[in-house]
Amino acid sequence: MLKAKKSLGQNFLIDVDILEKITNLTNIENKTVLEIGPGTGNLTSYILKKNPKKLFVIEKDNELANKLIDKFKDKLTVINDDVLKVDETNLFKEKVTVFGNLPYNISTEILSKWIINLKDFFWFDCLVFMFQKEVADRIIAEFNTSNYGRLSIICNWKLNIKKICDIKPFSFSPKPKIDSSLLIFHPKTNFIKINNPTNLEKVTRIFFNQRRKMLKKPYNQLFNGNQNILNKLKIDLNLRPQNLSIDTYYKLVCEYENLSS
Length: 261
Known about the structure:
Elements: E1 12-13, H1 16-23, E2 32-36, H2 42-49, E3 54-58, H3 62-72, E4 77-79, E5 96-101, H4 107-116, E6 124-132, H5 133-139, H6 150-155, E7 159-167, E8 172-173, E9 180-187, H7 198-208, H8 216-223, H9 227-233, H10 246-260
Parallel strand pairs: 2-3, 2-5, 3-4, 5-6
Antiparallel strand pairs: 1-8, 6-9, 7-9
Helix pairs in contact: 1-2, 7-10
């Protein structure tokens, strides 16, 4: 019996109903599939039942990677590496469907990396991810709510996101201390063009660095009090960061790039 490693944020999904629900969310027959953090291979088995053309799995844990090779033989390709170090964009020749019960300790880092690194071409057609519930709540939060922030803005830039369900701790082994949530992501066909996505990270970081303070200080830091932009975007500097809509932040990034060019 393999013991989950706390250092890798491992909680293995064991609930059959949830495993079936995940693999029924999108059609993967004869498609290329990537699974992040397969662990002991519980979800992997259900993915293979759907007859994908190819299945790749990324597993950092050496022991688990070897167990997966022994268990599934040539039914899949095991990439024994850290997902944060893998360049997915060069891994596939066609769009893939991605599943993942993401490690709690790096889930936001993985998602942010993928979104910021997205070019004009989407290397995936769908992402089906499990997060701890509080992270999922931040991802799907709308403006004027307490959960709204950088993660909401970055994730919704190029992706449509839908919450599927919440999942209780007893669905995992070992049981985590918190609930989880299942989200599905699809690429948007239309989104505001930002030349350098790292500017999105920068602008949102500065605005949300002191989220309870008014907008005046971060705005002046980025735009030196430029009144034209305020008028154009109809921004009231007496508001707080959570009061600006998602699209307003994208437009602010564009204005920032225009000033910097």
